Amino acid sequence: MEDREKALAVGHIPSGLFIVCTTDGETKDGYLASWVQQVSFSPLIIAVACKPGRTGYDKITAGEVFSVNVVGKHHMDYLKHFWSGYDAEDNPFGEIDHKLGENGGVIINEAKSAMECKMVSKASPGDHDIIFAEVLSSYELNPAADVKVHIRKSGLDY
After folding, report:
1. 2.70.98.10, 3.40.190.170, 2.40.50.140, 2.30.110.10: CATH of 3-35+56-116+137-150
2. What pTM does this model have?
């Protein structure tokens, strides 16, 4: 079976949409992610797929606190900034309503919820690394909002 055929059903695996954010105290950065999953109850661990070279990758893999903001259906206007990425001089955090969490992670106020995390290990199984991160804190920002579910046309693209 050809890769394109194999990838059709893979694209049907539902995921959420997430904005993964890092900060060095001055500059805040983020990228759109769709491959995030809980992998442990105790300790509370999530897995985040991240392509090396992606915004924030070096900070995350250096063990710095990062945040995962869960996109809700109620408000998605801020997604346009992260969909295709942005140039450093066009950093969107000047106009996106946000705050810093108790561990210093960037929390987008319009998100459904957010988690502050810290990498505990990583694996490199393919073109994306899998970052295993412990959840340090979480915030339910918009409790009535539904989580935005993302279904892809194919497992060969985002």
Report:
1. 2.30.110.10
2. 0.94
